């Protein structure tokens, strides 16, 4: 079972959570500690010096470099970015979207994997609305950019419609015989429209709808992700944990990435499996280490 | 079982289909013929004189009036409109959306029911992309407008995320104790992103996820809608048929609204039920006839 | 879609139902009429002169001969028999079972298909209990007898346990590369223990659990079989109807085999399919006509 | 989450497994150790001095007494017994059943809970077949005996047919307003016919089919029970582990009851829950401690 840590995300600041790593050294240190206890992949976001979301390839290169200096781990850079003001672009009629040029730029950070968010959905944060705006033409452009950069896409799937339409349509463009890497994103419906809430039946259905050869993970927002993550393992999938996804516990107390990965390892072992090594993860995902 | 006819839709023209009714007299005549054989509700779109999509309340009033002059039937006016050029508004960066002011205007056509498309999804037509753009703030605005006009909303649900988020959130605003009217739109994924493709497991799940008191219908795009429509009936739902949804048969031959309603009646009877009368439909949906 | 008619069954008498055919000429006439309107297979039971259940091969041969004199149709002889006194054998402690020697004898009736009831379940009729008693050793014996007689078995499946255990275990013995013929028997739980009641989720699960190549039908007891039969068609299966399975309508009025087959044909057509011919049925089931 | 330990079962001997407790002192010591680490109920079988299955009430009383001398725990005595020769009774035609008088006698052992095996199924052990033979009349008799003894029944459910028929039918007889206690027995299909094999979809369906107020546990045979047990917890159920159910690990090495309960506790905690105390278990099951 691959355990991915998602340490940072595109929203939470250090004011809101004491142990979210936002600066390059902090991210690298946190990832290294998580790999020590069982994580074998890291799903990274970068932030400006004052914690705001960014997709700056220079920042991604710096974080990737610092992580690799400490530990071997599969690196995944988010091209989704975040909803902070510097990442917003005007859309007309007073609306705004997450900047498309910035999303595209994330591809150049040098990671083995770049997220492919083919979703169009409204995020509502602090009373403001920002559109994650990905018409099919943009999804194809991003997909081609990722392939050109020598990275592999990770399909972020927010709802089952993407499994029967967006993923197969785009896969047809870039099919290289390697199994698609899919991350099913559950329980982020407090922020995003078009994003499903976990139920055992729905996750079963989504897994049944995956392209045959897909290797899938599940990430789960909210405070009680363990049941959904356990179901992912039961159904043959991999799991992602971290402060990005579920920063607070049932009582609202902040959790650290290290605690979350340790809990994930206990879950995987309780289900009769063991965490994958980094080499096994590379093999499962058909990615080679990229040196820069 | 309520059989709704959707005779026209927002896309197909008479050049593409010989019997799609687009002009007021034609729509009224077609609806009346369908009511004769078993339909008890009509889900209407209006068109300009040259068949282009419109949401013009004046046109809606005219069509509604002509229909009522011929037959008693529950009237549902679409606020979704269509993707024709006159309904498009620029969105920046070369993109366009379906005009929001025009969508809002549909409310004033005088129907008992107005569709509430709370979805944000890209439509791809003839190589062009248009956004059905409905952030939560717009959905609330439309919902309030429908209530203020004395109509009831029909929730157009494209994917299960809307059932756990959009519908409950908006329902909380307008809760008047009446059961919500939901239409689950399947198999329009050839045009829209975020729109699910039917499978027995998915439709079961969506029906299980409905708000407890909801009265639901199912509409199905494509050429072979009958199995999905039968499942809707099996699961206790109602059905919508018509040239809007499935204009051509398996062999590509055009079907008329009358043929489609007759086939729906045969299906309902084969499953051991009978078509609802107009009065029964009004009771199930808690709508009174609106006279204008 | 194969429509099988099950005209007689092992329980209902002419005192209880005016049009259940129990005598050879009546069965043959009824089957011929049903084939005329769309049935292509007949699942037969035989009865004594006073309507009691029997498995007498001489009687089966006579009925099969009379049917074939009138119409070409795929013939299936039940080895399940019935619960009437002449078919009961003592079991000790005041209990009784359906006679095993009589069940075995049905194989020699000369039909292309013989039912293989590998189930062990108690039938409760008129306050009496009779065991359908089929330990694995008997199931293997029956299966071997059917193969030796040159017939094909139809697996009567009462619950999902049989699909993961009995059917695969026995199939391993007789595997001849031909797809297994399975009939899923639903809603006979009013009589038999270990027999499931239809729900959409359960039937879906059972169909998903079938051996990969199986060709399956569904039969449904009770008064309202149409929804379950429709789901069978939706899931790619075939259907069985007849006085054996659902002799009375919702209001308790008796239905004839002809009416039931006509209703089945309407259902199949309403779902966009057409009834299979006898030749198509033989091809789907890999059975040749047996001439005697 | 209630963790029940099933330390002994009705089949495995000390020759086959080094740490299966079969004698009263050994069972009591094992149960006490398991309660120490998180079990709050014990599902007991008793054995003769040479390890053969028994339902002797005297033996049950002795074991129950010894357990209670060491630890407070909810006691459940099996009325299913086992397949050893001393528990077999002849059934005619060379067949044998598990002795009904012995099964009934288990009720008098003084436990708070007695299993109610309303199933009829063939067990195949070492090439021999024995029938667990429970016609509805016997099930009612056993149910009444359990109620008369002041105990509560635990419904052992082997397949979904029992949930829609046997359980509701018998519940109607004994309804006392207390929630029924159900144990869903999975993956014993290597021994029993009519016993389902776990799949996520099937367990979901069975849980959905439970009588509304039921409190359910899941027990799982075989070597890899953890995924099915995790699903039980996810679906709101309780779990049973022990040498009776899954005596050997994936590699065929024997596991002790203590190890299995410890693993169950880790699973429950990894899923974000904690083991129930004995008092909480009594409350959930509506049972009072019985002192003798």
From TrEMBL, chains A, B, C, D:
Name of the protein: 3-keto-5-aminohexanoate cleavage protein
Cofactor: Zn(2+)
Pfam families attached to this UniProt entry: BKACE
Top-level taxon of origin: Bacteria
A GO molecular-function descriptor: 3-keto-5-aminohexanoate cleavage activity
Protein's organism: Agromyces archimandritae
Annotated spans, Disordered: 1-21
Keyword terms: Metal-binding, Transferase, Zinc
PANTHER family: 3-KETO-5-AMINOHEXANOATE CLEAVAGE ENZYME, 3-KETO-5-AMINOHEXANOATE CLEAVAGE ENZYME-RELATED
């Amino acid at each position: 079972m691959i355990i991915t840590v998602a340490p940072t995300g595109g929203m939470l600041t250090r004011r809101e959570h004491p142990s979210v790593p936002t600066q390059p050294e902090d991210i690298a240190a946190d990832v290294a500690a998580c790999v020590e206890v069982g994580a074998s992949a890291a799903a990274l976001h970068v932030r400006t010096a004052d914690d705001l979301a960014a997709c700056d390839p220079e920042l991604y290169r710096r974080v990737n470099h610092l992580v690799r200096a400490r530990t071997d781990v599969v690196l995944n850079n988010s091209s989704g970015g975040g909803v902070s003001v510097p990442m917003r672009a005007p859309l007309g009629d007073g609306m705004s979207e997450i900047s498309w040029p910035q999303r595209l730029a994330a591809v150049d950070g040098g990671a083995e994997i770049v997220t492919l968010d083919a979703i169009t959905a409204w995020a509502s944060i602090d009373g403001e609305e920002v559109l994650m705006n990905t018409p099919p033409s943009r999804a194809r452009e991003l997909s081609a950019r990722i392939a050109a950069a020598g990275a592999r896409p990770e399909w972020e799937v927010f709802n089952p419609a993407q499994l029967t339409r967006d993923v197969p349509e785009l896969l047809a463009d870039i099919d290289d015989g390697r199994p698609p890497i899919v991350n099913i994103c559950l329980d982020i419906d407090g922020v995003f429209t078009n994003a499903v809430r976990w139920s055992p039946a729905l996750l079963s259905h989504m897994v049944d709808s995956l392209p045959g050869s897909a290797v899938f993970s599940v990430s789960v927002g909210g405070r009680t992700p363990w049941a959904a993550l356990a179901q992912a393992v039961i159904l043959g999938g991999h799991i992602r944990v971290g402060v990005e996804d579920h920063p607070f516990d049932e009582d609202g107390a902040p959790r650290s990435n290290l605690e979350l990965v340790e809990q994930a390892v206990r879950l995987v072992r309780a289900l009769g499996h063991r965490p994958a090594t980094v080499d096994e993860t590379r093999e499962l995902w058909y990615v080679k280490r990229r040196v820069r």
